[in-house]
Write a structure and sequence with these properties.
By secondary structure, the chain is mostly helical. It has a domain at 4-64. 58% of the residues lie in helices and 0% in strands. The longest helix is centred in the N-terminal third of the chain and has 20 residues, at 4-23.
């Protein structure tokens, strides 16, 4: 049994396929359906991937390109190049948090001595 949501999705898909085949243009379909160009383009390429034929769509689109994955060496070189432009202030600010100098709060020497003497005598 098809739920109302499933029925709506099926009908929307059929309408999109019909519009793409009729108008043969991402821009015209987007205007006709009142959707963004990018959402229609994404949907059209997804449909093409799953076997629907839209010969007006280019095969050299952004969705078919391989993802660029740099090697660790390329990442290291890029980081060095970027960090070479940092000022001293930027370098200190961008240190790992566990490497950064922590602010130190000093207690007065008298207070420290008093505390140590009190604890050794059991007066704390």
């Amino acid at each position: 049994m098809e739920t109302p949501r499933q029925k709506k999705l099926r009908e929307d898909k059929q309408n999109l396929i019909y519009a793409l085949k009729k108008f043969r243009s991402i821009d015209k379909v987007a205007k006709k359906l009142g959707k963004s160009r990018s959402s229609i383009k994404s949907a059209a390429y997804a449909l093409k991937k799953y076997g629907h034929e839209f010969d007006f769509l280019e095969d050299n689109n952004d969705y078919n390109k391989e993802v660029y994955e740099p090697t660790p060496q390329q990442i290291k070189e890029a980081c060095k190049e970027i960090q070479s432009r940092w000022s001293k202030h930027d370098k200190r600010r961008n240190l790992r948090s566990d490497w950064q100098a922590k602010p130190v709060e000093f207690e007065s020497v008298d207070h420290i001595v008093h505390r140590k003497l009190s604890s050794s005598m059991g007066n704390e």
